Amino acid sequence: MSFDCINHEYYMRLSDRVLALIRRVFHNNPEFRHDSLKHVARFAPLIPLMGARPDLSKTLRRVVTFADGSNSLYFGCPIMLAAGANKTALRICDFANMGFGGISVGTATRHVREGNTHRPRIGFLEKDRAIHNSMGLNNDGVEAVTRRVLSQLASAHMNQMCVAVSIAETPGITDENEKLKDIVESFSIAYKAADYIEINVSCPNTGENRVDLDTSFLEKIFTEITNYRNSQGIRKAIYAKLSPDMSERHLSNIMDMLVQKGVNGVVIGNTYPTSKVSELPVHVTYNQLTPLRADGNRGGMSGRPLYENMVKNVKFIREHYPQMSVIACGGIDHGFKIYDLIRLGVDAVQCYSVVAFRWMAAHAMRHELEEALLNGGYKSLAEYDEHHPKH
């Protein structure tokens, strides 16, 4: 495709200005604001004028199928809540109230983690409409997360939500064999419940080297993971979550390996590493990102400034690896952007930072996506897919 993916701007409604006021009121409590999303999701149907309930209409439903026979994925709409928003997997269906058609819970590790000890671990950048965080993979452990997903999966499906479990290696393990064993164990546990499994090999939040920088070890991980999947009676999709800062050559090397191993798709991408934020179109400077720089540049940035970089990577993958499913993540805050990405061949999108800056962001983006489809001459996403088959 030769068209440009515009970084569409959204109009600031009164509700968005109220949300901005709330951010100012809790300016000195950024982690509280970060954690309050689950409460908003839970009580949204009870809050006057919010109008936040699951949207079970058929207009934006999407089914993602795989040539290798992996289980299809069913989305009420192709807008997912990205990993990091619901780390615990508690009350998954509440997020359907906010308009999401899928959710990636976690990221979960083999063992419980409290995360990084410094405070604050998160900050909001008003001018850039971005978030910077160095949470450090705090989570309740993959066994607890998987158990909760399993108990809620049927209800999530009734609310037209696809549920993924995001996993990563437990930080602090230095022996390569032990690290490999750790992540494969997490995968085998998550495999019991998730609609698909997301392997986070690019987390910049722990201060350790990212797995996706070591292609040799990365290949060992996906060899063991796909071997495990091939031994199971049910075949579920595997996605690799990659960093947004890789060179084209390094990205190509990883993609070649993922295709060869039979990985179904990629999530493009993760938070943008601290030391490289100057490469993004931002107002903030590196020296101002105190939470990110504490304890050795742990963390990264997410939000609107990542959009152009994400689109560049998506275009590269869709052009050179058309067989791979792509879930786009980074700076997605408008339904017209989602339509542009769907035209590029993206199966779904993930977002999180936008919920801090747009009131009921997923609902707003659903309406915009419906408008974009109508402008393109389509009454539904299914009708669009009928006219634009991928294979």
The general outline is: globular
String of helices and strands: HHHEEEEEEHEHEHEHEEHEHEHEHH
| Percentage of residues assigned to helices | 25-40%
Summed up, the helix count is 12
| Spatial ordering of strands, largest sheet | 3-4-7-8-9-10-13-14
Q: CATH H level: which superfamily?
A: Aldolase class I
What is the CATH class name? Alpha Beta
Spatial extent as radius of gyration: 19 Å
Largest sheet: 8 strands, parallel, barrel
Describe the structure.
- The structure is a single chain.
- The protein is of the alpha/beta class.
- The protein has a single domain (14-387), classed as TIM Barrel.
- The protein contains twelve helices and 14 strands.
- The chain has helices at residues 14-25, 30-35, 37-43, 142-158, 176-190, 215-230, 248-261, 290-297, 307-320, 335-344, 361-375, 381-387; strands spanning 62-64, 73-75, 79-81, 102-108, 122-125, 130-133, 162-167, 196-200, 237-242, 265-268, 272-273, 300-303, 325-329, 348-351.
- The strands form three sheets. It has an eight-stranded parallel β-barrel with strand order 3-4-7-8-9-10-13-14, surrounded by five helices.
- Helix 10 links the parallel strand 13 and strand 14.
- Helix 5 (176-190) runs parallel beside helix 6 (215-230), helix 6 (215-230) runs parallel beside helix 7 (248-261) and helix 10 packs across helix 11 (361-375).
- The protein starts with 13 loop residues before the first helix and ends with a helix.
- The model has no long low-confidence stretch (mean pLDDT 91).
